[in-house]
Amino acid sequence: MLVKSLFAVVAAALASTSFACEPECRRGLAADFAKHYGPVVELAVNNLQDSFASDVTNATLPSSVSSMVPENVLHRELTTQLSNALDAFVEEATGKDLTSGIFSVMFAEEKPFKGDCNHPARLTRKMPPEGESWTREECEKMDYICGNPPSICHFLPDIKQRILGRIRSQLANRATFDDGSLVKNVVQSIKESTANVMRDYGAGSMMDDPEMKLYLDTVTSNAIRSLDTWSTEDLKSLCTRPEDDQVCNGWDDSIMTEILKWP
Question: Any idea which UniProt keywords this protein has (predicted)?
């Protein structure tokens, strides 16, 4: 009789114990968030497109070269190749690094969504029945950080700020002059696209001309300056401007639904 009583007590306790988001759930949620933050990364990088187009035209091609090479052709090629460099950058920045960064800020760094969700108890069940989701009411009730989906749902605004901070940091790091992949690709694109156009018009040997080197240095310096402004100033305003609202916040309801689907 005593054993049966103990079993009944344990069973009752387990029935009201809320389970945590397990590794599969964590990986799945990081991937869910990454799908929504891919367009945010694109939004951030798109701001560079216009800057680079302006950088190309804010340098004067030496007359000794412009007499052989149409300046508009060179501008077009530079703009195209810089745009390609940005496209490659977006692909890199929205890949596994984005997902792993989101995973880290949610589950592995300060105030991770892990641990006991039962002290104090906020919910009356350990998880929804198979095929059902947690409810918005449970999301509202789970008002402290712990490891279950309702807690993650409840603190969605905080999570979004964490992720946005990580994205700003990751993008800015790639745009630094010392070792940023974006800087390297931009500099290489400027040199290669200019050399290709010069060769096409029979002026390849003029790449070593001092005036031509000065032109390349000017275009490159303009582009690096734009990158510096973007990484130190523009990224800070990402998702704070009214025109960014749909991309940055228009999916809140759908991600809450996705969060609450996890057991």
Answer: Signal
